[in-house]
Amino acid sequence: MASPLLSVEALRVVAETRYRQNLLVEDISFDVRAGEFVGIVGESGCGKSLTALSLMGLLPKPAVRASHGKVLFENRNVLSMPARDLHHLRGNEIGMIFQDPMSALNPVQTVGQQIVETILLHESMSRDAAWQRTIDVLKEVNIPASEERARAYPHQLSGGMRQRVMIAMAIVCRPKLLVADEPTTALDVTIQAQILELLDQLRRERGMALVLITHDLGLVAEYADRVLVMYSGRIVEQAPVADLFTRPQHPYTRGLLGSVPPLDEDVEELITIEGQPPTPGAWPSGCRFLPRCREQQVGCASWPVRLVPFHEDHAAACMLLERETADVD
Amino acid sequence: MTGYVARRLLAAIPVLLLVSLLAFLLMQIVPGDPAHSMAGADASVEEIEQLRHELGLDQPPLVRLFDWYVALLQGDLGRSYTLRADVASLIHERIPITLSLAVYSMLIAVPISIVMGAVAARYRGSFLDLGIMGTALLGVSVPNFWIGIMGILYFSVHLGWFPSGGYVSPGESVTGWIRSMTMPALVLGTMQMGLLTRITRSEMLEMMHKDFVRTARAKGGSELRVMLRHAMRNALVPIVTVIGLLFGMIVTGAVVVEQVFSIPGLGRLIVQAILTRDYPLIQGSLLFVAAAFVFINLLVDISYAYLDPRIRQT
Amino acid sequence: MANVAASLTDTQMTRAAMPSPRALLVQRFLRSPAFVVGLAIVVLLVVMGVLGVWLSPYDATAMNLRNRLSPPTAQNWFGTDNFGRDNFTRVAVGSQMSLFVGLMVVLISGVGGALIGAIAGYVRSLDNIMMRVMDAFMAFPAMLLAIAITAALGPSLFNVVIALAISYIPRTARIVRSSTLVVREQQFIEAAQVAGSSTARILRVHILPNCLSAMVVQLTFVFAYAVLAEATLSYLGVGLPPPAPTWGNAISAGREYIIEAWWMSVFPGLAITLAVLGFNLLGDGLRDVLDPHLATEM
User: Fold this and answer.
1) 3-state secondary structure chain A
2) How far apart are CA A321 and CA A329, in angstroms?
């Protein structure tokens, strides 16, 4: 089988202050194949955004850094790449969009100038040609009156339009991978669906892989091929999307699914997970979900956490699953 | 944009009216009889009466206030008692010297401090940062008259590089002007450099944490490009405000530095006026400085709009 | 993103041992190098002002014309001036005078600024007119306004304090006003209004304590400016008139003997620099700890 487009191996991210070191992300491994749509789901603070930033080597150094592991993009390790190669990679081979398009756009440049800058950073062409291409890409992300909008400043556009501009800027150099970090969280519900539809359409048309970071399991259900569920800095379950929804293996995933309201039926009460996720640095050793887990058993606390394969491409980090699969054998 | 400028201009008018009122009131708080202290101890009663009449002190305060504003509208700042000349023309004579000193000083201070502040921000926490910030703090703390005297002691007396004072107009000799003005300009700029370095550093640090700077990195821009095109470009908005404020401070600094280096500028005129109790001259020149300060702030507001499109629109 | 690490240490510190809030604040102050060094300098100045004068066998104003312009010796550590007065004693007394002027200016401009700022921020109808007047004051560069006021009132200790206080009131008022504007929108103010508290009580009990940390930081910097401005006024001849042994006067006198007696102006100048530096550092440290959102450091 051909090697995957992106391969993350045993990634660990730490925050360092003068007085201590905190684990923020631990032992993350996953692959993304060309053209694939992968969703990474988790609550805020679970390390999903840091994982996304690591993919482009964008962790806010020196406070936060990847201390261990590899991020291989087409077999080149992003984490140890020289600055030159990294600049070539960013915006060109991997594009990225962020949660809040208002703060992510430079307030003192027109959106057109900002897209032109991206183009000229990676391709040699005249400013006029880059401008023309900017207008084209704005059309492609369904911005009406794109020539006029290109001359607007970010504050003159609506939230949805700004996020479309961000998308245009991220895809203008035809990257092979697009990383979208909570791209719809700051937007109205009606706009959310449009943006996601646009991202999926661009992915299909361009054969681009898409990694969508979100806290909303409902979003990935509709579009993603595969889902990674993160909790307290670790992947607790990964599975093809249909598999995850029909037979979730980790108690946390089951809890999350319980808190997604089914669209087709009326429910009296949503099942929610009690308690709060622990803050980084206050993580229990062993299974981090243990204090909130309703299904815990004797032995959970001392079980060395690891992903247990369940079915092809489906794995979960739960002792109960390991016992079940052992019984079957 | 024109609407914005017009509104700023209109807003400056009441401030100018209040400023001129303050300048007028300043003269009213002089204890005792100003004419008496101006004329000196051995003046005769007639001479004092004559002076009271010249100064308008024999009029009721409201009439004087009215006359003050009428004169101001005609560009008349009063008449100096000791120098026997119009205050306006005295200021007019001195202003090119002080202005050129201020501009020279800012031309040295602004580029150095912006570069130093940006470098300190980029290498935050390093010894370089510590060194730059320590020097900047020293610059803010050291009194400029003292650093001027120390400069004279070392560079003029000891090394003989610069004259210890005096002024050579550029019409006479350009090199003479540079020799006579370089040390005063540097001394005048010490506090400005310190302040501006500190502010540039903190603004740059703030900008470097912004999301759009991360976006610029995600686009594949080099670190230098990200710093200059995105972080610095945005940091310029507050930095320009500070430069405007520093121009106000530089006038105060000029009062001191011109005194130390015997440069016949506006600052020296003000000190001279104070020491000789020439109240009309004090009043007029202070009003002029304050009005200039208001005008500079106006320019800053306008350049804001140029630098920040969000302000332009409102 | 960048505050991740900072907020982490915060949560951990509260989690770990749960020391009292006061102990925590002290701990945070001691971790700020600016604060510690600044405090050390200020303490040194106070000690020099009190102990130096007490230990010195000389009187600051006692002339000794036979020992004029003596360079630093074991008897006269900082040398003597053109009247044979002991320079060290004069610098020590000068630190008393500078600290006194600074303290008075801080007190007066603090109280005045707090009152004006809180009233302008809280009483909507007065806001515009009060702040326009403050703007007019601020149209004069602070030091120039102080020069003008002392010029009009005449040079004396009292007038110098008044002039400097008036110059810094508008700046303090501005800061208090903006803090007040933030605080007044908060829920507990509304609750107090509903409960029938008077305006004066709301200002005193609720608004001003909430502006306190911003004010403490600002006033520490005012202290530094005041010391610098007092020296400048003295130097220009509009401050405390000689023979008052202020640092500014000493440098002004030393200016004429710069070639034959460098010590006359070097030592008082170092003292001014040290004092202003100390209060600036203290202000930086206080701001880092009390008002973290003002500091951009992590």
Assistant:
1) CCCCCEEEEEEEEEEECCCCEEEEEEEEEEEECCCCEEEEECCCCCCHHHHHHHHCCCCCCCCEEEEEEEEEECCEEHHHCCHHHHHHHECCCEEEECCCHHHHCCCCCCHHHHHHHHHHHHCCCCHHHHHHHHHHHHHHCCCCCHHHHCCCCHHHCCHHHHHHHHHHHHHCCCCCEEEEECCCCCCCHHHHHHHHHHHHHHHHHHCCEEEEEECCHHHHHHHCCEEEEEECCEEEEEEEHHHHHHCCCCHHHHHHHHCCCCCCCCCCCCCCCCCCCCCCCCCCCCCCCHHHCCCCCCCHHHCCCCCEEEECCEEECCHHHHHHHHHHC
2) 13
- C151 to chain A nearest CA, in Å? 46
Computed over its alpha carbons, how large is the radius of gyration of chain C? Answer: 23
Distances in Å between the Cα of B180 and the Cα atoms of B153, B173, B174, B261 are 15, 10, 10, 9
Does C1 sit within 8 Å of A281, measured CB to CB? no
Which segments in chain B show pLDDT lower than 50? none
Best residue in A13, A14, A16, A22 to probe C by mutation, most C CBs within 10 Å? Answer: A22
pLDDT of residue C257 exceeding 90: no
User: Does residue C152 sit at the A interface (CB-CB below 8 Å)?
Assistant: no
Chains in contact with C, where contact means 3 or more Cβ–Cβ distances below 8 Å, are A, B
Which range, A209-223, A275-289, B59-73, B110-124, has the best average confidence (pLDDT)?
B110-124
Per the structure, the count of domains in chain A is 1
Question: How distant, in Å, are the alpha carbons of A280, A305, B39 from that of B51?
Answer: 80, 97, 8
Q: Which of A83-97, C130-144, C235-249 has the highest mean pLDDT?
A: A83-97
Task: Count other Cβ atoms within 10 Å, centred on residue C21.
Answer: 9
Which range of residues forms the domain containing residue A287? 247-329
- Which of A56, A83, A108 lies nearest to residue B307, judging by beta carbons? A108
Q: Do A108 and B223 touch (CB under 8 A)?
A: no
- At A29 the pLDDT is 92
Q: What is the pLDDT at residue A110?
A: 92
Nearest beta carbon to residue C15 from set A15, A19, A282: A282
Whether A294 is covered by a domain: the verdict is: yes
Does the residue A137 lie in any domain?
A: no
Q: Is residue A316 part of a domain?
A: yes
Residue A28 lies inside a defined structural domain of this protein: no
With contact defined as beta carbons under 8 Å apart, do A175 and A93 qualify?
A: yes
Q: Which residues of A touch C5 (CB under 8 A)?
A: 15-17, 22, 63-64
Residue C4 is predicted with a pLDDT of 39
Neighbours of chain B (3+ CB pairs under 8 A): A, C
Domains of chain B (ranges; CATH) run 2-73 (no CATH), 87-313 (1.10.3720.10)
Contacts of C163 in chain B (CB under 8 A): none
